[in-house]
Fold this protein.
Amino acid sequence: MDFDLDFDAADDERDPDDDTELSADERRARSFPRFGPGKRIGRKFADTWWGNAWIESMERTALDQEQLRKGRRYAFAGQVGSITVSPGRISAAVHDGDQYTPHDTIVRVGTLAAAEWDRLLDRVAAKAGHIAALLDRDMPHDLAQTADDAGVRLLPGYGDLEPECDCPSWDHPCRHAAALAYQAAWLLDRDPFVLLLMRGRGEAELTEDLRRRNARRSVAAVAAADQAGTPAEQAYAAPPAALPAPPGPVTGEPLALAPLLAGHEAAGIDAEALGALAADAAHRARDLLAATGSGPLAPEPDAWCDAVRLAARMPRSAATRRLGEASGRVADLPRAVKAWEYAGAAGVDVVDAVFSPPRELVARATEALREAGGGDGAASEVRNWRNRWTVGRDAQVRYGRDGRWYPFRRRSGQWWPAGPPGPDPADALLDLPGE
């Protein structure tokens, strides 16, 4: 299958003709403006699986968890300057809150050898879906699998990230390097070409290389078609082809039934809602097919949880309100939908669940939340009731039946889910977005 790679180089890549004295790596460098205080790109530090893989690579080698906590605070507080990304490194000036002199901070990343790039790009060019995903600023899991099949580790693994900083700390990483690495995950979320640049190739040269490889494959495919043909006796003697793999997950927008129903509307029929229901049925059917033979199926959700699930998938319309009315909980539906978006059925359960955790867990969580609050008056006041800890006036952390910690924030007198769950109560508190 051919794929037309008709696009321009990224606007923020430097023109090699601007300065002939620059090295090849310097010509590839891209700079990104600083993130201001309280800036959030996703619901947590990374929204994408590859952004999370970047963070995990850094956190797994950390020698001091306290430096990671401080790094997260620095990242959220906007204490990282503009970030420059070039082959093998990211760099920025990072300052402490009480200092005017920033620290020169670098995180080094291993680059791919020329032979590794050849193997990787040959595989990518062979699949139009990979090219389309990259152009859409996406990195599907099977693209990373394609890299693995080619013997190329695209995502950083254990020990691949090497922090450097001119601060006096001996920690690995120090709080400045951790802050830089956390903010780099925001860049990766928005553009996987940033990761490819770290690995050694800029977007413009990558897309040009893919264009050439795609053109060569097209010529080869035409030549092969001209010589195609199999004698009948060979065709009948060949073993039967294997059945295709089970279908992958349903993606894309709900079925566009509204145009089909135009001019044929019936009283009480919401075309958008009907399209969402049809898409939901397709998703569930595909999930059942994929689960067949792989173990017991997940239990069916109760009526309330199922109403929330449908409302989360539907367009905001009268049908959403009807779901709330049918469940008898119209006022609760918006908060429950937000909880579903963060954590699915477990998130919906935490909105209502009230139970008593073990005493030792309560004591540990209370102490951890007091320390995370900073110990500065009302902001660090922690009050516990059953599985809920209220910190200050407007922040709350809840312990779920699944053993995870869920952040909540007070809005208009109600507690609203404020982010995805985490394994630690202090992290859930620190990950609360600023108002």
In short: The radius of gyration is 26 Å.
